[in-house]
Amino acid sequence: MKAYQALTERFQRLSRLDHLAAIAGWDMQTMMPSGGSDARGEALAELSVMHHEILVQDSTAELIAQAQQESLESDMQANLNEMIRHYTDAALLPTELVEAKALAGSRCEQAWRQQRIENDWQGFQKNLIPVVALSRQEAQLRAQAQGSTPYDALLNLYEPGMTSERLDTLFGELISWLPGLLQQVVAKQPSLTSLPTQRIYPISQQKALAESVMQLLDFNFDHGRLDISAHPFCGGVPTDVRITTRYDTSEFLSALMGVIHETGHARYEQNLPKQWPGQPIALARSTAIHESQSLFLEMQLGRSQSFLRHLHPLICQHLTAATDLSLDELVKQVQHVSPGFIRVDADEVSYPAHVILRYEIERSLINGEVEVSDIPELWDEKMQRYLGISTAGNYRDGCMQDIHWTDGSFGYFPTYTLGAMYAAQLFNSLQQQLPSIEEAITLGELKPIFAWLNQNIWRQGSRYSIDALMQQATGETLNPTWFKQHLERRYLGI
Predict the structure, then answer these.
(1) How far is CA 454 from each of CA 287, 443, 473, rounded to the nearest angstrom?
(2) Is residue 83 a contact partner of residue 7, using CB atoms and an 8 Å limit?
(3) Which pLDDT tens digit goes with each residue over 245-304?
(4) I need a surface site. Which of 53, 113, 315, 331 has the fewest CB within 10 A?
């Protein structure tokens, strides 16, 4: 197993570069002064180049060929399969393209922070055009090698094996019933009492509440922390997970639910298999599986009446301005459904519409069917069609609201709704296997949930394919029926 052992040492070295890049990237989005953006972007691009050059050197292909002839145990073979996938993905790209895309993405992302505040589409467009051009170059190279469409080649990086043809079927079925369900829910839901607008929820109190809830969700603060950023995210590495949120002193639920969401990502990262340090098999299986963990905690668990019953006293304890908030009103607020502009603040019924419109735009963009200049009009058209609201001229709350396209993360958006489908399927299986789980949630006894997730998802890493992972956890591959059933039960009582 000399060749395999040499590969494990090489991938461990690559993981250390990834560690540095992850922490430097977190700092760029949270702590770094704006004047450091150019130098930091160049440093991160240099790390990307180093990572790429180490991975694609000729000796890697030689070692892979030799390791394929060695007798390996099943876990080693699974790790080798992931090594091959990572090497193949990287070897398709020239180093110059890797560097150029990293630099363009850094410039676009840093400028976006202020341009979004100023609603400056023209300025943002100038920076996004080169990012899209470089992403198209990458997509073409990958598509030619894989015999796929350009967009599918990028989608495969986030969700191995997924295609736009399959997504069109899944999302086509979803959008066939979602607008009708949305109308039913809005008409049926109880009236909402607006929380007093004059009240102030200090950031210090919101952070204390967030950390208290993170403790409830078993976040390990010895291996992670909570900070503030312009766009909530989970980053870092499994031994040092960094999650962020953004606070609004006029209301507290968006930050709180954002923290619960990112804690779902963090729990997955903190519990990935530790017996294979620095190896691809110890990484998360896919982006959609990652999203399933955040949406499991935020939507399936966090917005359930059982969990809110336990969360309510924590809110009253930490937030001075919320001491008179009743449990009934908290449930109404958290489960309120109303189409809005902002994806990250959307309720779980309207959320898929936000994802589908982004998917449709980025697919056409990467396949060369539309240009960057077409985005605002397409965005407004689809927002009106799917959610009944217009973003004409409102770029800040429209096509400039997300960070993903700034660094060329095309192919990422579909995984949010795939993750919601996986989360519903996983929670349904959990309920079947642990019938008393609702009572346990009400009492704040969440360890059985985490033990189940650890057994079925977290500690499996990338040992199995997505379909095999779901088959073992739930008895079937992805079945979107459970997502529809979940929404109907929670919001229509069906």
Answers:
(1) 17, 21, 11
(2) yes
(3) 999 999 999 999 999 999 999 999 999 999 999 999 999 999 999 999 999 999 999 999
(4) 53
The mean pLDDT of 212-238, rounded to a whole number, is: 95
* Nearest residue to 325 (alpha-carbon basis) of 491, 186, 201: 201
C-alpha count within 13 angstroms, C-beta hemisphere, residue 154 = 25
pLDDT of residue 349: 97
DSSP conformation class of 410: T
- Catalytic residue numbers read 262
466, 160 Cβ separation under 8 angstroms: yes
3-class state of residue 436 by DSSP = coil
CB neighbours of residue 80 within 10 Å: 22
User: In the chain, how many H helices and how many E strands?
Assistant: 20, 3
Q: Which token pair is 280?
A: 């691809």
pLDDT tens per residue, range 382-439: 999 999 999 999 999 999 999 999 999 999 999 999 999 999 999 999 999 999 999 9
| 236 Ramachandran zone, left/alpha/beta (phi>0; psi -120 to 50) | left
The percent of residues in the chain predicted with pLDDT above 70, rounded, is 99
Using left for φ > 0, alpha for ψ between -120 and 50, and beta otherwise, residue 438 falls in alpha
Amino acid symbol at 54: I
Region 226-243: what's the mean pLDDT? 94
Residue pair 408/135 in contact by the 8 Å Cβ criterion = yes
Asked if 397 contacts 342 with a C-beta cutoff of 8 angstroms, the reply is yes
Which two three-digit tokens encode residue 207?
């952070």
Ramachandran angles phi, psi of 138, nearest 5°: -60, -45
Which residues are bridge partners to 240 per DSSP? 237
Q: In sequence order, what E strands does 202-249 have? A: 224-228, 234-237, 240-245
Q: What is the pLDDT of residue 181?
A: 95
Task: Say how far apart CA 411 and CA 164 lie, in whole Å.
Answer: 10
Q: For residues 7 and 64, is the Cβ–Cβ distance under 8 A?
A: yes
- Judge residue 121's burial from the number of C-beta atoms within 10 Å of its C-beta, 0-12 exposed, 13-18 middle, 19 or more buried: buried
Please name every residue paired with 226 in a beta bridge, in sequence order, or none if there are none: 243
- DSSP string for 439-458: HHHHTT--HHHHHHHHHHTG
H/E stretch holding 21 reads helix 2-30
pLDDT tens, 103-131?
A: 999 999 999 999 999 999 999 999 999 99
Sign of the torsion angle spanned by Cα atoms 27, 29, 31, 34: positive
**Parallel, antiparallel or unpaired: strands 234-237 and 224-228:** unpaired
Q: Long-range contact list for 204-208, CB < 8 A, 24+ apart? A: 205/318, 205/319, 205/320, 206/247, 206/249, 206/252, 206/255, 206/256, 206/318, 206/319, 207/247, 208/318
Query: If 0-12 CB within 10 Å is exposed, 13-18 middle and 19+ buried, where does residue 487 land?
Result: buried
**Sheet architecture: strand order including 224-228:** 224-228, 240-245, 234-237
